[in-house]
Specification:
Elements lengths: L1 H77 L4 E7 L2 E7 L13 H18 L6 E4 L2 H23 L3 E2 L5 H12 L4 E6 L6 E6 L1
Parallel strand pairs: 2-3
Antiparallel strand pairs: 1-2, 4-6, 5-6
Amino acid sequence: MTADAQVPDDDVVTDDVVVTAEAEETPAETTAADDADGATDVVAERADEDDEELDEEDQLIEEGEIAGDYLEQLLDVLDFDGDIDLDVDGDRAIVSIDGGKDLTKLVGKRGEVLDALQELTRLAVQQATGDRSRLMLDIARWRADRRERLAGLGTEVAHRVLESGEREALDPMSPFERKIVHDAVAAVDGVISESEGAEPKRRVVVIKT
């Protein structure tokens, strides 16, 4: 009877060990699987983000190519020569025309002709893609040079207002031009800039804080 009584005890102990071992292995296997699934999800999310960035860049490149073809035909019709350069800057396509004679005629006074050509080019892109374009057109480096001049003006006025303490209003500008000035003023501590008035006479005002 004594020997028989010990057998169930051994069986219970053995069963406990087996059950315990199985209980310890299951969570470990589950955790590893969960980690693997989590890592897969992260990789998939990153891949999706990369695909979205590539899709957006490809779209902007396509916009630039459509704009380049349109402008090339336009230059032929107008009998102007020029090299067309395509680029992407942030969230917009950039198309530049340079290297030809009399290209300033396509810029006009204060860039009015350039703005009109830019809008026509955007419409041509929209007609081809079905999406509204924010493409930027520059001719004979007018916008690039204008950007440098306006940035310098914004910095100069900001320091002048900081020294005198008196607010200063600039000449009316386009939204593109005002943003350049705002950015330049924001880089100077002690002054802020605001826009006042209605288009097309809306202007930047620099104020000491």
